[in-house]
Amino acid sequence: MTRQIVSVVGGKDAAGSDTYASVNPARLGDVVARVGMADADTFAAACRTARDAQREWAKVSAPVRGRVIASIGRLVEDNAESLAALVTEEIGKPYAEALGEVREIVDTCDFFLGEGRRLYGQTVPSEMPDKNLFTFRNPVGVATVITAGNFPVAVPSWYLVPALLCGNAVVWKPAEYAAASAHAMYRLFAASGLPDGVLNVVFADGPQTFAGLEQALTEGTVDKIGFTGSSEVGRKVGELAGRHLQSPCLELGGKNPMVIMPDADLDLAVEGALFSGFGTAGQRCTSLGTVIVHESVHEDFTARLVRALDAARVGDPREDVLAGPLLDQKFADRYEEYLTWIQPHHRVVSGPTGRITAGSPRAGFTGDDGLYYHPVVVDGVRPDDRLFLEETFGPIVGVTTFSTLSEAIELANRPGYGLSSSIYTTDAKHAFAFREGISAGMVSVNNSTSGAEAHLPFGGNGKSGNGSRQSGMWVLDQFTRWQSMNWDHSGRLQKAQMDVAEITPDPEFRL
């Protein structure tokens, strides 16, 4: 049955003027939800509502807010299969991966429920007598969170859970093509007992969201922006935030390298490349972009990768498959453009390219009339190629070679992204030299470029982000502001750096 969903502001439905059809990309005839789309005024009104609700939510003690986070985790855990099935239905993510994504919400809640009792400040010694210094974490206020749909529930939880725990209110704008999954997640959060208006969900397109955000920033009802999406849009969000003297949390795209050293376990490296390059049909920000393989093992590695890819199952995401369809028609259209970047000097070693059809079949394919595409491996990619330099959001991986580790590191850094990276080696010196030289915020050794844990910082540098981090205790700095306090109980004015006791040494002393 097709769902009818709208934005929820202050605990009440906010009908939209336009309707968007969220379609199952694995079976294009199935409409998962019809979504009432909000305008800029609705977005700005949601921020005002959040502002009013936040004042009372911040008065709730942090340990009690932690218990609310614990309730969210248990509710998500008890509804894991239903939520994962909806994710699979709406965006075509293989069910096993969707279950893992839902588990990420639970892990995030499990980590942060204790942070309600650990929002520590410090007692700091003063340079003056009879004076005490303290630091406190205060909530920033209202956070607007704008997320992509390739991880429609896990990545939003990285923002929502710590933001709410720290005493903020949130206006969340999910991707419209994953609206049903987002709405279900909102309902689980609301069932935890969150007061109305503390969490609001607004479904809107990009232009209306941007206009509404600009209006809210002008009105002073937004204090923090969290954005997950493309580097192109991230720049615009960053520019808008900068005009209002705000520092957003930006988690953007990646062109993630995997370096294969001559001493690598090639079977393990192939397994990692297969999962990080083609799992979720290559539609992760951490998906493998280019394999940078040592010239001495290039032919062997490439042949093994192609054999593994040939044996991998592509098709119905409800089954045990490596990859399902692309997320949405707009991503399919964009992927078709990426395929035009294949040049005459390249060598497609994986077979057909483009959409899987009766006229262009794939062995073992189990899909229907969805947005399924052949996974592609392109050998002979050069450092000046678009395929090497730019993010390709989809099931396509480039391969190039190197002769020295320093050359490999230079190639890995060349595109200017800095999200995730990987090296396969059995030599610790290679691993640590790579870690030191790579610009990425995340480094894997003998593991894929994809994969995050709830208690480690997640984020990138360069085109991949502005250095902000999600997950773990590090994200607390995104959703709190430090406040310092000095308490002078001497009964007199003591002026810092002026009324400080001095102890004079004897600089002429010698043994």
UniProtKB/TrEMBL annotation:
Homotetramer. PANTHER family: ALPHA-AMINOADIPIC SEMIALDEHYDE DEHYDROGENASE. Residues 17-484 form the Aldehyde dehydrogenase domain. This is aldehyde dehydrogenase (NAD(+)). Belongs to the aldehyde dehydrogenase family. The lineage of its organism: Bacteria, Bacillati, Actinomycetota, Actinomycetes, Streptosporangiales. Keywords: NAD, Oxidoreductase. InterPro entries: Ald_DH/histidinol_DH, Ald_DH_C, Ald_DH_CS_GLU, Ald_DH_N, Aldehyde_DH_dom, ALDH7A1-like. It holds the Pfam family Aldedh. Its EC number is 1.2.1.3. The active site is at 251.
